[in-house]
């Protein structure tokens, strides 16, 4: 499974969210590093690999990032920040019904992981290659997102709309559905991203003991 995933990520363009980094050399460095880190791993991709792909001198890269760790830290922080902001925006746009909130969160979570598979892989796998002080901002964003989903699950339980053996375990399982997407899904799949999001919403509601058409 991993080799198939890695092969697919090598041949696809590594995309960053449009507004996350301004166009220019810094963005180009991050996009190339993102592709290499996703397919080869942080330790498998060198600064030389990145500069060769960019046709840059090492000094040009170091003018933007002091080290390879700083490049990875930027990507990991960016991915977590975009994800947390998108979840919060989706949550804020719906009303106070936890069912609607859950649907909105799952949909955004699915769309982001399906649209930006390279970033999802780097965020979730390569963060462990960072020193603790470099990973801390991203982990804070991750905790924020996890707390938001858990809050929605607990509110649904309190209102009698959800029924689960463990709120924490169920919230983690719902998150894992999206996290696993880069391991099997790409945009050439017969399922569109929107259709996939609909399926994930249904699966999540079933995990929560709620009918997919619950109001």
The name of the CATH superfamily reads Tetracycline Repressor, domain 2
Describe the biggest sheet?
Answer: none
Task: Enter the CATH topology name.
Answer: Tetracycline Repressor, domain 2
Could you name the CATH class? Mainly Alpha
Helix/strand class: mainly alpha
Report the order of strands and helices: HHHHHHHHHH
What's the CATH architecture?
Orthogonal Bundle
Which terms summarize this structure?
Tetracycline Repressor, domain 2, mainly alpha
Describe the structure.
- With 215 residues, the protein is mainly α.
- The protein has one domain (2-207): Orthogonal Bundle (Tetracycline Repressor, domain 2).
- The chain has helices at 2-11, 25-40, 47-54, 58-62, 68-93, 98-115, 117-125, 132-158, 167-179, 193-207.
- Helix 5 (68-93) runs antiparallel to helix 6 and helix 6 runs antiparallel to helix 8 (132-158).
- The longest helix is centred in the C-terminal third of the chain and has 27 residues, at 132-158.
- The chain is elongated.
- The chain starts with a helix and ends in an 8-residue tail after the last helix.
- The model has no long low-confidence stretch (mean pLDDT 90).
């Amino acid at each position: 499974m991993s080799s198939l995933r890695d092969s697919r990520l090598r041949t696809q363009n590594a995309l960053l969210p449009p507004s996350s980094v301004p166009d220019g050399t810094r963005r180009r460095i991050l996009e190339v590093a993102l592709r290499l880190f996703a397919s080869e791993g942080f330790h498998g991709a060198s600064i030389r690999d990145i500069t060769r792909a960019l046709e840059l001198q090492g000094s040009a890269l170091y003018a933007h990032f002091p080290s390879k760790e700083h490049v990875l830290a930027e990507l990991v922080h960016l991915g977590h920040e975009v994800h947390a902001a998108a979840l919060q925006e989706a949550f804020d746009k719906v009303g106070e019904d936890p069912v609607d909130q859950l649907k909105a969160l799952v949909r955004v979570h699915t769309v982001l992981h399906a649209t930006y598979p390279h970033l999802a892989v780097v965020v979730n796998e390569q963060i462990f290659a960072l020193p603790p002080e470099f990973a801390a901002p991203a982990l804070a964003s991750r905790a924020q997102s996890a707390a938001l989903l858990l809050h929605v699950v607990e509110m649904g339980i309190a209102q009698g709309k959800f029924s689960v053996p463990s709120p924490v375990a169920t919230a983690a399982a719902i998150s894992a559905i999206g996290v696993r997407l880069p391991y099997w899904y790409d945009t050439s799949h017969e399922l569109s991203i929107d259709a996939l999001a609909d399926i994930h919403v249904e699966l999540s509601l079933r995990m929560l003991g709620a009918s997919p058409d619950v109001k």
